[in-house]
């Protein structure tokens, strides 16, 4: 889910009917009047809700309580019909027919707000809108009525699951989202066996797309942006005819494993960027492989990201940090020590300060500190006695302060 968002990409949406929100803030410099509750300092016109949703979801995933103002900003972007606009500069005015709304950012907002809890009215309206936007083939395009694509269908599946729906039972004309994904999966013959296409070509041909394949794997498994390691998956058997979403996910994971095997990362498909690493899509592939249970390749590619992705994330913004946090979470790695980088702290620095801990949480932490202090006092006394008895000095180090996100 890492196609860079720009005016050119939006033009492509109008032609092809779909695109995917960006991880990077590549749009023009923002107006100085941007709200302080917004994550990132790039122009949010096209990806504000996407990056805000990923940032809040990532913070929740690592146990950091997001800022209330940041959450309120996100809920304020919802239109009356339940859809989300990427950026509403004046939330006091209702959305109209000119307001840009899309399935991807609406689905991302649902996943974030469902995880945070307490926003059932918002997520319920959003899910209702998504259901109305479902295509006759069971899938979703980037915009309501646009041709179904793998990325959009998959992120909506994640939203439905997060909201407590059963994606297989959300149907249009008898077709579920999984039916749409199966039609976008390449067959087992050919060099790209098992991959997913983004969309069919003009003649109905399917062209393998690594980014779409990562999304297709997680979507076929009924997973969202955040997932832990699965147990379903031996991908060594290669591609087998997919009679259902589970086999399609296994086939897609096998394709990703082969694509990542040589260098440990995916390469960019953008024009003029040949042979350049695609950090965001590699992170998505790690999540997909972990969800499928293909943990060996997931771990290898995560190690590559730990070594190489810090500069990319710092230049790309909050959604990039979130993608790396999701990859770390899926593989059981520590996002606060990601190749020497504290992703949680870096993400937090791109947005409003996290909320203060609740009174109960603060009391619990104080109690733990007091108990820890008591233990430290005992060992300090023991150390002093030993020094006095045998003349050996002990260096007692202070406790490391807990890093704050």
UniProtKB/TrEMBL annotation:
Biased composition (Basic and acidic residues): 357-369
Molecular functions (GO terms): catalytic activity
Positions of region (Disordered): 21-40, 350-369
UniProt xrefs under Pfam families: Prenyltrans
Superkingdom per UniProt: Bacteria
Alphabetic keyword roster: Membrane, Repeat, Signal, Transmembrane, Transmembrane helix
Transmembrane segments: 377-396
This protein's record includes keyword Protein biosynthesis: no
Signal peptide: 1-24
Domain Prenyltransferase alpha-alpha toroid, chain residue ranges per copy: 61-164
Protein name: Prenyltransferase alpha-alpha toroid domain-containing protein
Source organism of this protein record: Streptomyces fungicidicus
